[in-house]
Specification:
Helix 6 (158-172) packs across helix 8 and helix 10 packs across helix 14 (428-440). It contains 18 helices and 27 strands. Strands 10, 11, 12, 13, 14, 15, 16, 17, 18, 19 and 20 form an eleven-stranded mixed β-sheet that branches. The protein has a nine-stranded parallel β-sheet with strand order 5-4-3-2-1-9-8-7-6, with helices on one face. It has a five-stranded antiparallel β-sheet with strand order 21-22-27-24-25. It has 703 residues and is an alpha/beta fold. Helix 11 links the parallel strand 8 (308-312) and strand 9. It binds alpha-D-galactopyranose (GLA) and zinc ion (ZN).
């Protein structure tokens, strides 16, 4: 695990010295020291500078900067500079620019602008990575590699179209198989020649020029998503392999975008190719702490629980939202520790110095346009830098054990949202977030896992809207339940196979027997038809009735027992929540998308019956999370509210030391608005510690 080898929790961020004269470089070195910066990401957008023409490479500026940083004891996360191609390349080799979903061929401009199947881009980006590796492989400042930047996009050019056909041949072998997987007898789409297949775009299968979601043929659009994620991944692999061919022990990563839930790239697949996960986190203004926590947990889940790097975050305001409020005092600190609490072993910003021109001139930075350290934002950054020095290496590599897991699957996400029907209100990530919140709001750790993750060792697995069931997955869920696991499944599950073809014989298809229910109809009620789920009797905290909507299934039990029914409409009295016992476990079915309170009650009840206790009971808005290292357990308390809070540590819990302030606490503590504690126990291991160690062993065996 890479982060375990770090000297401490790394602190710094993106630095763009190529935008600045030498005097400013000197000043930056002074300011970095003041702020406690020990890592910078360099060379992310300097391709045009590094390669002024086809044959010339000039890295002198980078040599000088690398040396200067080394003198300061600052490590470098070295970009490969390929995230924006040079203008000369686009002029001379137009294949590098993209073709958009609506068929428009782009000219030179912006960034993240290269076609993944452009021979020119592939040739020159690979060459650039190799040259950089040859030049800096022995540089003492080099810590890790940052390939490209926030990979993404969809391209619809002729090169991509040709590559798509090759990809399809590899997947299907014959056109007969492809025709049946895509259901091409519908609307007379049968293909007789591979060259008849065109990319699914606004010019072909897609229903709108703006949305890559709405398609007439889910099969081809789903395969395009898989293909495109793979194609872009192959660009990453080209550069990575070039680096590793020169430097076999290089640590290589690329930064994941959109807070980790970036739809076009299957990050579980990508994660296998990265040495460490790196996340860019820019929470929207309405993003709750729980939704942020879910994304951090997902990043941890990508590599079986390994910690990750917070590669980018913003110390204050952004520039690219319609309105960009500054981060209020304390918020940057709170959010930085939030990431650490949930598995980050590096806290990094975009950016260290605020640009003077172009798109990001108003993007917040550690060093503002004023240019000195006497600003609120700099002072707050410096405080974090100081504290992270104090924490030193204590948290590195510490994991976050959990006995429950939520399944997250990119292909399922694509398939659900490509489908015409049943409702545009069903948003995959939003449904996941509701179940996550049910754990989060109780401070119960939950892993975010992929469909390849081993289920062994979990007590509870929640698979919200498991619309697509991959080959063999139903059997794995069955084994999990038979061996004593608790499975929670929901409406719109077991509907299709991996080609988005409906499993005939009644919903929920392959999961029908395991869940012991048959869903005869799936209603997508209008807003005025919203229903309610009425509990048949109390179940833990659950009692009375709960609002529900989006989808409501008309369910017949086939061996399962109903715990709640729909309150209205023609399916009044039909089951809305069921449990089927199988082997020594049980499989629950939630036949709708109920309000949060019902899910929280249900998850609370299931955790309680499995003996899964919260990390700590805290007042609302105060998060408690645990990380466990080989020798120590760390309890994070984060007050996400704007009011002070009193937290009970438990009467027999013994004394804690706060690693940030050095203060000791026993029994209870008060936590100011937006403040943080990182507590370790002073005394010998208690029950909690033992329990955590058990979890840790389980987690290790699962890896
Ligand atoms: C992304 C990019 C950065 C920068 C930030 C601004 O995360 O990776 O280069 O543009 O956005 O928020
Ligand atoms: Zn292309």
């Amino acid at each position: 695990m890479f982060t375990k080898s770090l000297p401490k929790i790394m602190y710094g961020g993106d630095y763009n010295p190529e935008q600045w004269p030498r005097e400013i470089w000197d000043e930056d070195m002074r300011l970095f020291q003041l702020a406690g910066v020990d890592i910078v990401t360099l060379n992310v957008f300097s391709w045009a500078l590094n390669q002024p023409d086809e044959h010339t490479y000039c890295f002198e500026w980078l040599d000088e900067m690398m040396d200067r940083l080394h003198e300061q004891g600052i490590k470098v996360c070295l970009g490969t500079s390929t995230a924006a191609h040079p203008a000369w390349m686009a002029t001379r080799y137009p294949d590098v620019t993209l073709v958009e979903h609506d068929g428009r061929k782009r000219k030179f401009g912006r960034r993240h602008n290269s076609c993944p199947n452009s021979p020119t881009f592939r040739l020159y980006s690979e060459r650039m990575a190799r040259k950089l590796a040859e030049r800096y492989k022995d540089h003492p400042a080099l810590l890790l590699w940052h390939v490209n930047n926030e990979y993404g996009l969809r391209c619809y050019c002729n090169n991509c179209e040709k590559a798509f056909r090759v990809w399809l041949r590899n997947r299907y072998g014959t056109l007969e198989k492809l025709n049946s997987a895509w259901y091409t007898r519908f609307w007379g789409h049968t293909f007789y020649d591979w060259n008849e297949i065109v990319l699914p775009s606004a010019l072909s299968e897609h229903m709108s020029s703006s949305s890559p979601d709405a398609t007439a043929f889910q099969g081809i659009s789903l395969d395009y998503d898989r293909f495109n994620s793979d194609a872009i991944l192959s660009c990453y692999k080209l550069e990575r392999d070039a680096i590793k061919s020169v430097m076999p022990n290089a640590v290589v990563t690329t930064n994941f975008q959109s807070n980790g839930t970036y739809k076009p790239l299957d990050y579980f697949k990508w994660a296998k190719e990265l040495d460490v996960i790196a996340l860019d986190m820019y929470p929207a203004d309405d993003m709750t702490p729980g939704r942020m926590a879910m994304r951090y947990d997902l990043m941890r889940g990508l590599k079986g629980g390994d910690p990750f790097m917070l590669m980018e975050s913003c110390p204050t305001q952004l520039n690219w939202r319609p309105r960009n409020a500054v981060k209020r005092p304390g918020v940057n600190r709170l959010w930085s520790y939030h990431a650490v609490a949930r598995g980050a072993d590096a806290v990094m910003y975009f950016q260290l110095r605020r640009s003077l021109g172009a798109f990001e001139k108003f993007h917040g930075a550690m060093i503002d346009h004023a240019g000195h350290e006497h600003t609120r934002v700099f002072r707050e950054c410096a405080q974090i830098g100081k504290e992270l020095r104090k924490l030193n290496d204590s948290l590195l590599g510490a994991r976050s054990p959990a006995r429950a897991a939520i399944v997250f699957d990119w292909e399922n996400w694509w398939a659900i949202e490509h489908s015409s029907g049943l409702t545009v209100d069903l948003r995959y990530v939003a449904e996941i977030e509701k179940y996550y919140e049910a754990f989060y709001s109780r401070n119960i750790p939950v892993d975010m896992i992929g469909v390849e993750t081993d289920l062994e060792g979990y007590d509870i697995v929640v698979a919200p809207v498991l619309y697509m069931v991959h080959p063999g997955y139903a059997a794995r869920l069955e084994t999990f339940v038979e061996r004593g696991g608790t499975l929670v499944s929901t409406t719109f599950s077991g509907i299709v196979n991996e080609n988005d073809l409906v499993t005939p014989g009644g919903y929920p298809g392959e999961l029908r027997e395991l869940l012991g229910v048959w869903v005869e109809e799936i209603d997508a009620p209008m807003e005025h038809q919203r229903n309610r789920v009425m509990m048949s009797g109390p179940l833990g905290e659950l009692d009375g009735s709960y609002d529900c909507g989006v989808l409501c299934d008309v369910v017949h039990v086939e061996g399962a027992e109903a715990f709640a029914v729909f309150e209205r409409d023609f399916y009044q009295g039909f089951p809305a929540l069921t449990r089927n016992r199988r082997g020594s476990g049980e499989a629950w079915y939630v036949a709708t998308s109920p309000e949060q309170a019902m899910l929280s009650g249900l998850i609370g009840h299931l955790c309680e019956s499995r003996g899964i206790r919260p990390v700590l009971a805290t007042p609302a808005g105060v998060e408690a999370a645990v990380r466990v290292s080989d020798s120590q357990s760390y309890l994070f308390l984060l007050n996400h509210t704007e009011a002070d809070a009193e937290v009970q540590l438990g009467s027999d819990s013994g004394a804690y030391i706060d690693l940030l302030s050095g203060e000791s606490h026993e029994g209870s503590l008060s936590l100011q608005a937006q403040d943080v504690r990182i507590l370790t126990r002073v005394d010998s291991p208690s029950n909690l510690m033992e329990e955590l160690n058990q979890w840790k062993t389980m987690q290790e065996t699962r890896r």
